[in-house]
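Hi support team,

I submitted a single chain yesterday and got back a structure, but I'm not sure I'm reading the token output correctly. Could someone confirm the output below corresponds to the sequence I sent? I've pasted both exactly as they appear in my results page.

Thanks,
R.
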Amino acid sequence: MALQVVWFKRDLRLHDHRPLVEAARRGPVLPLHVVEPELWQRPDASARQWRFCREALQELAEALADLGQPLVVRVGEVVAVLEAAHRRHGIAGLWSHQETGNLWTYDRDRRVAAWARDRGIPWQESASFGVIRALKDRRGWARAWEQRMAEPLLAPPTALPPLVGIAVRSLPTAVDLGLATDPCPGRQRGGRRAGRELLEGFLRQRGRGYHHRLSSPLTAFEACSRLSPHLAWGTLSMGEVVQEARARRLALATLPAHASAGWPRALDAFLSRLHWHCHFIQKLERQPSIEIQELHPATRGLRRTDPERLAAWCAGRTGVPFVDACMRALHHSGWINFRMRAMLLSFASHHLWIDWRDSGLHLARQFVDYEPGIHWSQCQMQSGTTGINTIRIYNPIKQGRDHDPDGVFLGRWLPELAAVPAAWRHEPWRMDPGTQEACGCRIGLDYPAPIVDVAAAAREARERLWGLRRQPGFGAAADAIQERHGSRRSGLPPSGKGGGPRRRRVADGQLCLDLGLAPEGASRSVT
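Hi R., thanks for writing in. Yes, this is the structure output for that exact sequence:
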């Protein structure tokens, strides 16, 4: 029995799944998911992520069983699992989606590719998202993305012949995988059904006004699509989300103005972010070292992490209320909106002078929607190591007053400040001792004093970073980075004779911040 093995990775669905469709046309299909303990022990993995993934796998297993052949689960190293299946049953073809993951998955895929070549087994990898493998030039990328998003969605096979003599086996728990305790009571549930409910609810109800409600954590939890974990784990395809959003946009155009008010701009903003989602992942696809190495050589070795500062930031105990509230909300839910992610990274990098790799690993574990291509690009951009973005140092006090003027969000996530008058919540250290006693919040006892002077720390960071940018050769290296990785839709002019890095202004929360690469990096390839 020569099998077509469909290796499910971060594509946990049946709908719009090209590897499954193509494999089913060629013979009996063994749908396989390999739980890799070594992957789940990596420092960017967490129990909250596994639980979301496990729920998605359980639902996928049920859907495959309804077609006739359940999901086959194995725990171990992928090459060893494939070799055992090949020896026992014979593998005629291996099918999967391309994965732009972390460096560990990149190395694993290279091992799988070598194994398949040695055995003479064709491994067919279908494109994921709008990411183009082995891309040499970003010119034309936006057009190629549009073409991919317009491709017809694929219906799943109507049936899969059952395979005899192949045990299905159960999925391990987080405890089985040795994952650290990771309570996340507000976590989103995994699985395609949950993803479809979110998509439909967003496009028909929650999404109205998305463009002006996505920045504040008071409104973003409801107003944002919340589809990011479903795109990261592949319970929804990017193509179906784009096509349904565009269909909704067209349908709204036929309605009276009062019925569609707020929707057109909201959906345009949402579709823009789907485009930039793939734009960022393309950067990691082309430059895998974005995960571990500063993009601009002049910024390497810039920071040394103070462990006490890192621990306070991770725990939401910095003494800066808006930072702490955002971190605690993230711990609880596994998600926070983009602008607050940027602020958390900015505060860690600039005010606390924490290395972006250390802050990035903590956030990666907290994010149920962890997507390496987006995450590590953003870590570098917010920390100022790309060399081609303007230096953006968020003032966390101003951010709090702008996005939570009455301190409602602070009161929700910082019970120590619940009785503090709204006028003092964003800067409680400014209360006199009598007021602190009266509201039961003594700074330094009930709630920590600020770990740094916010204004002074920002000023020092700004001086350091602009000092680097004034060094000879900085601008030339930045131009090379921009040329290789910058968006071709940005309309950026040449940097000019001064050799300074290119900069652009962006709309609030928009994911259109261009990053670069380390010059010596090579493109990702597994074949």
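A quick pointer for reading it: Confidence is low (pLDDT under 50) at residues 489-523. Let us know if anything else looks off.

Best,
Support desk
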